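queue> holo job accepted (guanosine-5'-triphosphate)
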Amino acid sequence: MFLLNDTIAALATAAGSGGRGIIRCSGPNVVNVLNRRFVPQDETAWETCSNARRHTGLWHLKDTGRQVHLDVYLWPNRRSYTGQPQAELHTVGSPPILETILGDLFEAGVRPAQAGEFTLRAFLAGRVDLLQAEAVLGVIDAADHLELQTALAQLAGGISHRLTELRVEFLDLLADLEAGLDFTEEGLEFVSRDVLVERVLSARNELQRLLASTETRTRHAARSRVVIAGPPNAGKSTLFNALLGRSAALVSPIAGTTRDYLTAEVDWHGVALELVDTAGLEETHDAILQVALQLRAGQIQQADLVLHCTAADDARDGHPIAHSDSPQALHVITKADLFPISDLAESSSCIWISAVTGQGIESLKSQVAKLLSAEQEGESHILGSSAARCRDSLEHAIAALSRAAELANAGGGDEFLATDVREALDELGRITGALYTDDLLDRIFSKFCIGK
Ligand SMILES: Nc1nc2c(ncn2[C@@H]2O[C@H](COP(=O)(O)OP(=O)(O)OP(=O)(O)O)[C@@H](O)[C@H]2O)c(=O)[nH]1
Ligand SMILES: [Mg+2]
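queue> job finished
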């Protein structure tokens, strides 16, 4: 299914005009094909240099009699991303020029690359594992800094390293078990039962931690939700508007102005959030307002962070500062302009803001971003797309190791234990791509764009 012996090419930059256009080309025939139309400035270097380097020169465009300046970044041997001769042709980002060069290449026997085929070749050459290949796509598709950071960490091999280490541990374990199988008659034991159970259980715990991290990652794939709550007239909607920098919510001195809740998407310091303004009303017998209360309760329950607002005049008059059942809350004292800051601020752990003077607004944004980015970073070991694929394998591997531990405790035979350990080993192999099927590769690489 995977043809590696033909030379492929595709546009690697976005379609359309641009400052620079790049054509990527990979396969055994790269140098021969380029020789047909590329005239390097330094012919000796072109002909003799066996290291990766940039060659400047001219490309003779077919049928037009014209030439264009071109830089060819050439990896003449296997020490390239795809593990085979590879070139990148950099020139002006003019669609007709790029199309003509691609046409020249195709005429010379090069085949148009399929989606993700360069990365597929890198995977098949052992340059990247499957998680890293998925991370390439993750980098391209990243919607915000957090996703980019996760993708880059995965590309750098963060989770792959740990899984590879675990596979080595399983291989060692298997080797010990299988060595013992050859000497069952002599009663030789290469690893004691206690040690065996301990090794199996510690590997299983590690896999359970990895599984938990893939689950939290999916939960946080969406924006973190920050809910503004507090009593009527606390200035919640005014704060919502001030944080957005526009008048999205209705504001008035009448308590109970906000009935429904309002949401807006924001990015603060690279953290993607959904900001929610809620109704301040308390007890009510009005049926519609009761629905509003339920909506608010739902919003607070789903919140990653609640901004609990108390107006400065209420705080000074001894009204209790609202509490929340949500896991994380920041206490915000609004309308700080109404009182000299020294009255209450110094002794309290609250954030003082004023929508009138702008005091504390930026600082509130950075505190929220800091709190939530710390939380998200702690969880972002793995991209959502990879997590979904890994989860099944991790669950199977955990189940296999649990069976192995039970068997070992119950005095089961080493050959059965070895079967379970091998199963766990294979499951980890599926995650990194040490074991793969054509179907799986097809599914992963077809999501890529052409040229990557
Ligand atoms: N001086 C001063 N007044 C403010 C400030 N923020 C809000 N207010 C006033 O406080 C009143 C209530 O503001 P809202 O933002 O509607 O309060 P809310 O908490 O959304 O009220 P509900 O929607 O009824 O729960 C309005 O008259 C605002 O102009 C502030 O920072 N300083
Ligand atoms: Mg309001």
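queue> The first helix runs from residue 30 to 35.
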